[in-house]
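Hi, here's the filled form for the chain we discussed.

Project: internal
Contact: R.S.
Residues: 423
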Amino acid sequence: MSVVDSTSWEDQLRLGLDAVTKYALAICCVVGPLLLGYLAPNQVADSLMPLLADKAVVSFVLPNPDAESVAKIDKLKATLAEKQKTLSEKQGALDRLAAGAADDKQKDARAAVESAQTAEAAAKAEIEKAERSRDADRTIAQSRQISDTLTARYNYAAVSGLLYLVSAATLLLGGAIVFRRSSTLFFVGLGLSLILAWGVTKAPTAYANAGQTFLKVLLDRADENAGVFDPLFAAYKNAVSFKVSDAIRLIIDVNTFVGLLAVGVALLAFAVLSGPEEKPSLASLEERKSNLQRMIMLSSAILVVATLASKVVMDWPLGLIVAPQADALRPLANALTSHLGMTGTIALFAAATPALAGWYQDVKRYRLDTPPAAAGQKQDALDFGVPAAVTSILAILGPALTSPVFVTFKAIVEMLVGGKGGG
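And the returned structure, exactly as it came back:
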């Protein structure tokens, strides 16, 4: 009895190992992106930047709507002081002239005094004009701040809509691919994707903490900046939700959840497309090739749109603070977006490579089992041509190419190439 049990256990172990070996690439399509594209980069980031949510790293300097008017009037007053000093000097020079001085000298001195008096009067008129336009300058400054605030909200709403569209397309195509293989696998995978998307959305990461702190804390401050936003909030006094500092986290979480759900189904689709066929046929291999290309493009589109959304939401706070501080914080905003773009490219590469490898293994099996005469020229349809290969590579690199770090790298390369060309 023990021999039978031992044999049965060994058989089960062997079958399990065979199954793992058979579907190793499919497992890599799911596990690889999670490990390489999510856990590893975020673990490094969390170790380097253990930030706490809702804790401001820096103190934000919000613009004063009266700052421009005050600066302009102060500058005009300084100019007036110089004109008055010049007038005093010219008047003193005229007074020092002796009564018997030459008429031409007295005439020149009086002309100089009159010119200085004219300049002083013009300076006083400029100050009075600036004082009268103080309210208008304040309104213009407020309008600029309000415009920047509304523009950021509209841009993020537009990018969010695009994210929902691309995610829906990915869910439909990826779900159809999985459902055709196994309806049970589809429903189980969808359930796991829902759980995974929810867990990752709620999991604290250095990116989420820094990004939400960077945005939410500043929006809290901006909402409190009544000096700038009083006219806007007065117009929307019945719309409490107009102050989005509390709503923005929910919106970001919803977008993150939608994107991750689509990505989870996409990973499952890649796993299905990498799975070996018992007897691959030309039609099935061509269909798998087309589906692989479509899934690469759609997955890249999700990650590219997510990177663009990060760029929009990170640029949002920069329009609410004074320009010098915005310039100082822009590298941080770009670094957060670049982190997301790079990890997206890593995840897509980790998902697509095993799927393409599994498909190519079946292509080789098909060509070995199919006589060349029977296959004929149709075998060429199973090769990735240069255009298709370049398109797939660019799609995989899309999230990284969208991030600000690539723009900086491109600028450096162009500078070096231009410098060599000029030499």
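Let me know if anything looks off before we file it.
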